[in-house]
């Protein structure tokens, strides 16, 4: 096999708690991660010409060693002393700097693709072990689906697939720095933490409504005061009948969960008309990555 096409799936956080800060500056988290049916497309082909050549449909993205795709390909090429080159094309659809793991999932998918293309024989676990060198969210993106993420994000526990529902996603026309959000998080001043354990139990019982009602994200305490439009979108989704609405990751993307498809479609249309967000789309949850 000399070429491969893969989908790099986006994620949302159904729950996000920060439980401490380590001496090395990293934050300890407890998060429920969930894949959604929004994806970038990655096409990798083997070339006799050595090196890594990356192209993308967005001209502001780096196409050198500053891109996680490039780093992922190089990581495996260096380890396994791959002499051939690769040409990689990225079609970007996941919003950039939006809290949906766009860069992380691109890196994870590149590792998966390289593993298949060059018949490296790495297991899912072995890919995840290597992927942590690229970023805390990358190991999760290798496997996808529903998972509890702990530590700095690299300790993953597989959870049952979430109940069926509809996910309304809105990304306002701003970008948020993850580093800024974590740097300005006041852990000692947090008045409320999401009940991650109760949410896991709701997932195990396949109780969509309770799972949604238990959603919480402590990073909202930083992002919303800085970007009030995030709260405006949350309120709009709730007014349109969402069971609950929350910011994903460090933001600014907001998602609302709906049990009724018609209601979700109407909410999507109303939100687009309101002009609060640059990108608005309706999607669903998806399960574990079948490629890894």
Please name the defining characteristics of this protein.
single chain, 292 residues, alpha+beta, seven-stranded mixed beta sheet, four-stranded antiparallel beta sheet, 10 helices, 11 strands, globular
Description of the molecule:
With 292 residues, the chain is of the alpha+beta class. Helix content is 33%, strand content 29%. It is built from 10 helices and 11 strands. The strands form 2 sheets. Strands 1, 2, 3, 4, 5, 6 and 8 form a 7-stranded mixed sheet that branches. Strands 9-10-7-11 form a 4-stranded antiparallel sheet, covered by helices on one side. Strand 3, helix 1 and strand 4 form a beta-alpha-beta unit. Helix 1 runs parallel beside helix 2. The two termini are 16 Å apart.
Q: Helices and strands, in N-to-C order? A: EEEHEHHHEEEHHHEHHEEHE
- Helix proportion of residues, in percent? 25-40%
Helix/strand/pairing category: alpha+beta
How many helices in DSSP terms? 10
Main pleated sheet:
7 strands, mixed
The beta-strand count equals: 11
**Can you tell me the residue ranges where pLDDT is under 50 for at least 5 consecutive residues?**
none
Radius of gyration: 19 Å
Q: What sort of overall outline do the alpha carbons produce when their principal axes are compared?
A: globular
Mean pLDDT: 95
Report how far the terminal alpha carbons are from each other.
16 Å
What proportion of the residues form beta strands (DSSP E)? 25-35%
List the SSEs and their pairings.
Elements: E1 3-21, E2 27-47, E3 52-56, H1 68-79, E4 85-91, H2 102-117, H3 124-131, H4 138-143, E5 146-151, E6 155-158, E7 166-171, H5 178-183, H6 196-204, H7 208-213, E8 216-217, H8 220-226, H9 229-239, E9 244-247, E10 254-258, H10 261-274, E11 279-283
Parallel strand pairs: 1-8, 3-4
Antiparallel strand pairs: 1-2, 2-4, 2-5, 5-6, 7-10, 7-11, 9-10
């Amino acid at each position: 096999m000399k070429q491969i096409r893969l989908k790099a799936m986006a994620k949302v956080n159904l729950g996000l708690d920060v439980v401490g800060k380590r001496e090395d500056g990293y934050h300890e988290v407890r998060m429920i991660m969930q894949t959604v049916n929004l994806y970038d497309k990655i096409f990798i082909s083997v070339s006799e010409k050595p090196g890594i050549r990356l192209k993308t449909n967005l001209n502001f993205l780096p196409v050198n060693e500053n891109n996680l795709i490039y780093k992922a390909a190089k990581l495996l090429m260096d380890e396994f002393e791959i002499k051939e080159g690769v040409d990689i094309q990225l079609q970007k659809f996941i919003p950039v700097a939006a809290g949906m793991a766009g860069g992380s999932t691109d890196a994870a998918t590149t590792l998966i693709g390289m593993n298949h293309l060059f018949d490296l024989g790495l297991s899912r676990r072995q890919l995840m072990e290597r992927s942590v060198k690229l970023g805390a969210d990358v190991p999760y993106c290798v496997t996808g689906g529903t998972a509890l993420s702990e530590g700095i994000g690299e300790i993953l526990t597989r959870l049952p697939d979430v109940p069926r529902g509809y996910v309304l996603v809105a990304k306002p026309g701003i970008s948020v720095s993850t580093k800024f959000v974590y740097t300005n998080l006041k852990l000692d001043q947090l008045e409320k933490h999401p009940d991650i354990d109760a949410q896991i139990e709701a997932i195990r019982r396949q109780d969509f409504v309770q799972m949604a009602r238990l959603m919480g994200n402590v990073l909202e305490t930083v992002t919303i005061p800085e970007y009030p439009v995030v709260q405006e979108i949350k309120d709009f989704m709730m007014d349109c009948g969402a069971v609950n609405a929350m910011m994903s990751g460090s933001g600014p993307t907001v998602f609302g969960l709906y049990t009724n498809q018609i209601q979700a479609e109407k909410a999507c249309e109303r939100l687009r008309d309101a002009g609060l967000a640059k990108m608005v789309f309706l999607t669903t949850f998806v399960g574990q990555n079948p490629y890894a």
